[in-house]
Write a structure and sequence with these properties.
Oligomer: single chain
Structural class: mainly alpha
Number of domains: 2
Distance between the termini: 71 Å
Radius of gyration: 24 Å
Helix content: over 70%
Number of helices: 19
Shape: globular
Order of helices and strands: HHHHHHHHHHHHHHHHHHH
Number of strands: 0
Strand content: under 5%
């Protein structure tokens, strides 16, 4: 009885200080139960152990920020990991005050209607703090839950397609990669983006493979995921639709030689249409120029920027409206390469970039191994491989041509890293197995 009373008192105090922190415990327990559901006892222990350790690491990081962190903006009462996080939390608290009818300064009221920073993730933060009270640190636990849920969904997609070992390896990769640990512990929209994108891919697969009575449910989930992504960040719905289209094209165009030939002919015909039909050409160049405009905006922001266009487009006499085909192709090509290669080790000049160097080496390994895993995946499960690969490719191209700052590049590239990690683990497993089998053959000989 004394222990029960003590636990009740502790939980009561904790709930008073941070209701979200207390409610986080049963939510995390539910995720752990769901993560191990349907697995063998041994595999369940591994899955639960990985997810539990990942959640514990993030909770410890949030507690460290609370106890030992410092605000990015002077006189701010909130300790944060990133400046964008401070802005999101502060704006959400102002939005909460507005909903509750509290008074505020004119400057704060104007900030609520700024176009910059508008996202449906803000509504998630506001609703949580209207229901449970101001929780500048508790809302970060929501990010932890959303990211963990996305990781479990991806594990359930990968396990039947590529096996238990690859599923466990890719789960550990996406839960413990340092930059992903940082983003998923912050009050940023990356965790929700990952959850929605993974749910979109999972429901797309279920729409094709689920039993007939469940297919309408899966299709509804697919539509909801894409629609929510559209409100989360600019261009997210276009990237999602492009990723799904690319996945469908890869699925239909692979598996048979004649299908691959038809897909190649269709791509050539599409490029010919872009070159010869003025209206299509104008639309394509308009999209490229819009991406170039966003890239140039990133270049002019503080931080470590880099150039993708010809020098005359950066403060020179030439306007982006004068960009021709050759310049557009160079811009796109450099953007794709920058996504795969930047920041290169000799480009790193700040302390934070040098700290990131080990992970950049891991990224290079992913770039090398992911194509191997993609080819192997097409043999094992063409639909799953095509959808994960198609979405990742579209994300990388979009990030490449829209970024111009090293920090922004790394942060947005993380939207594709979990899926590329699946292919990297699959490729590494295949090469390791093949190498061992070759050694066995030679030893037998």
């Amino acid at each position: 009885m004394a222990i029960a009373i003590a636990v009740g008192i502790v939980l009561g105090i904790a709930y008073t200080l941070s209701p979200l922190s207390v409610l986080f415990l049963p939510a995390a327990a539910g995720l752990l139960w769901w993560a191990g559901r349907g697995a063998s006892p041994r595999e369940r222990r591994w899955i639960i152990g990985i997810v539990l350790a990942a959640i514990a690491v993030r909770v410890a990081l949030i507690a460290g920020v609370f106890l030992f962190g410092s605000p990015v903006i002077d006189r701010s009462p909130i300790n944060v990991l990133f400046g964008d996080e401070e802005y999101m939390i502060s704006r959400a608290l102002r939005q909460r005050a507005l909903w509750l009818g509290a008074s505020m300064t004119t400057e704060a009221f104007r900030d609520l209607y700024e176009q910059y920073g508008r996202t449906s993730y803000m509504d998630v933060l506001v609703v949580a703090q209207v229901v449970f009270g101001p929780s500048p640190y508790g809302v970060r636990l929501l990010s932890v839950l959303m990211y963990a849920a996305g990781g479990i969904i991806l594990h359930r997609i990968v396990r039947p397609a590529f096996g238990r070992v690859v599923a466990l390896g890719s789960l550990a990769f996406l839960l413990f990669l340092p930059s992903l640990v940082m983003w998923s512990s912050a009050a940023l929209k990356e965790s929700l983006n990952f959850l929605l994108a993974t749910a979109m891919l999972g429901t797309a697969i279920a729409t094709v493979r689920a039993r007939w009575r469940w297919r309408p449910v899966a299709l509804a989930g697919l539509v909801i995921s894409v629609a929510w992504l559209a409100t989360l960040r600019d261009g997210a719905a276009i990237i999602a639709a492009g990723g799904l289209a690319a996945g469908i094209a890869i699925t239909l165009g692979t598996g048979r030689v004649w299908r691959a030939a038809c897909l190649a002919l269709a791509i050539v015909a599409m490029l010919a249409v872009v070159d010869r039909v003025p209206r299509v050409e104008a639309a394509a160049m308009s999209a490229v120029r819009a991406a170039a405009m966003r890239h140039r905006g990133h270049v002019y922001t503080p931080g470590h920027s880099y150039l993708l266009m010809d020098p005359s487009f950066y403060g020179g006499p030439r306007s982006l409206l004068l960009m021709n085909h050759e310049e557009a192709l160079r811009f796109i090509g450099r953007g794709v390469l920058s996504t795969l290669l930047y920041p290169m080790p000799w480009q790193m000049r700040s302390r934070s970039e040098l700290v990131y160097l080990p992970e950049q080496i891991i990224w290079y390994l992913v770039v090398v191994l992911a194509p191997v895993g993609f080819v192997v995946g097409l043999w094992r499960d063409r639909l799953t491989t095509a959808l994960l690969g198609g979405y990742s490719a579209v994300v990388l191209v979009a990030v490449g041509v829209n970024s111009g700052n090293m920090g922004t590049l790394v942060r947005h590239r993380a939207l594709a890293v979990p899926y590329l990690g699946v292919f990297a683990v699959l490729g590494a497993a295949y090469l390791f197995t093949h190498w061992n089998s070759e050694r066995g053959i030679h030893a037998t000989d």
